Amino acid sequence: MNVGGGAGAVLGTTSGISNLASSLAARLGGSAGSYFDQLRPASFRGVPFVSLGGEGGFGRRNELHEYPLRDTPWVEDIGRGTRRFRLFGFVVGDDVIAQRDFLIAACEKEGVGSLVHPTFGRRDVSLMDFRSIERWEKGRYFEFEFEFIEGGPRVFPASTVASGSVVESAADGLNVAAALNFAKTALTAIAYGAAVLGSAVSAAVGWYTSAKNFIGDARNLFRLLTNLPGDFGRFAGSATVPTFSKYPSSSVDTSGATVASLTQAATVARANLDTASATLDAAARALDASTIDDFTAAVQGVTDAVLAATPDPADSIRLLTSLAGYLPSGATTTSAIGTAMASMQSACSDLFRRTTIASIAVAASTYEPTSSDDAARVRGQVLDLIDAEMAVAGDQGDDETYEALRSLRQAIVSDLNRRGAGLPAIRTFVFGAPLPSLTLASRIYRDAARADELVAQADPVHPAFGRHRRGSGDIVGGRCHARLLRVDAGA
Question: Which CATH class name applies to 25-150?
Answer without folding.
Answer: mainly beta
